[in-house]
Fold this sequence. Notes:
By secondary structure, the protein is of the alpha+beta class. The protein has one domain: Sandwich (Immunoglobulin-like), CATH 2.60.40.150. It contains one helix and eight strands; from the N terminus they run E-E-E-E-E-E-E-E-H. The chain has one helix at 126-148, and strands at residues 5-14, 27-33, 36-39, 50-58, 66-72, 80-87, 98-105, 111-123. It has a four-stranded antiparallel beta sheet, with no helix packed on it. Strands 3-2-5-6 form a four-stranded antiparallel beta sheet, with no helix packed on it. The radius of gyration is 19 Å and the shape is elongated.
Amino acid sequence: MHGSIFTVHVVEARDLKPMDMDGTSDPYVILQIEDQRIETNYKKSTLSPVWNESFTFDILNGKDPLKITVMDKDTFGNDEFEGQCAVSLQELKDQMKHDSWFELTDKDGGPFQGRVRLMLQWVYSKVQYFSEYLSKWDETLMKDIEEKD
């Protein structure tokens, strides 16, 4: 999959679990796919953080899911787990942009508190991507012409 690019835009989270004494959290997100790992900045004292951070991964095989982990930054001691979810790249085979909310689970996959919003796009074939894009554009133009007539 030479040239395969996966873009992840971490938008925001909602309804996170309070992890600090003041009833808030200092959340950040860890993104992991294949052997790559990236973290967002942490947002201080909030249960509804907005990150608006984008990351790009070079994808070698496309078989591994994107693992998303939300953590609470702690000044003293270890950071605390807030929740996790995963996204299969196979769900993104249409190469289009996907803007979705994902429910967080506990470490065993059970229900947990909170959700995270991501915008995802996997472009694994630039030729196919542009071909499909032009085809959709052509369909839109044809509809416009039909409506005009």
